[in-house]
Write a structure and sequence with these properties.
Protein name: Lipid A biosynthesis acyltransferase
InterPro entries: LipA_acyltrans
Pfam families: Lip_A_acyltrans
Largest sheet: 6 strands, mixed
Organism: marine metagenome
Distance between the termini: 46 Å
GO molecular function: acyltransferase activity
Amino acid sequence: MNKNRVITNIKHRVERLVVLFFIFFLNHFSAKTILHLSRILGSLSYALAKKRRKIAFINLNIAFGNKKSNKEKRAIIKNSFIQVALSTLQSLWVLKQPLRACQLIEDKPTGLDLVKKSLLRQKGIFFLTAHYGNWEIMGIDHGFRGVCKLHSIIRQLDNPYLDEIALKLRTISGNGVFCRDEPLLKIVRALKNNESIAIMMDQNTAKGGVFVDFFGKKAATAQALSRLSYLTGTPIIPFFCHPTKKGTYRVKYGPELTLKKTGNKEQDIIAWT
């Protein structure tokens, strides 16, 4: 084992110990305390992460131009930092008591009847989602509701010890995961079992994607979801959790995306994307 591998292994083990400490530490707090802590950590991160702030400001300038003032843009950026901190702390907070995730969801999610109706087709479901709100908590809550098993498509973490913790989080309520490099056959098999696949569509893609209009700019996105839905007939249903100021979330399924076939397969897939 060379020196670099030894250093990397030590680093990974230290990171694991830090995360385990936070899991133990946060477990003793209330949801309200977790919210307060996230506001402190998020504000601190906002103040220190100059490079990230700059990137976020550039992105908001692209998205809104002069429609929002610089003050409004800075507020959006700061709130984003706080939400990232909140999502992280909440995810660690529920690991020892997973039913806490359901406590963070306000009322009954809307659109559950649509999901149940779509499952009657026996083709499974593609859930279209993004890094918004707290997608980890949303997934755990979905698993406990027992409507259909949900598989997330993930990228494994560089730290195998943290990857193990993340896997536990994502499967703690009966859900599953597929790694990006796993055979497509596993996804097809899950759909045949009338299960669901959650796909994050707000990620850049290095290959196999198409450029779409996004806030007036061209942005690359994957076409795998559209292609699979086209070939399998599996419905696509948006699935999001909207954050509230109380640190809770409102979950919404649907409406189902209505996609038409014109007979030109490749053009249809691009149009669907």
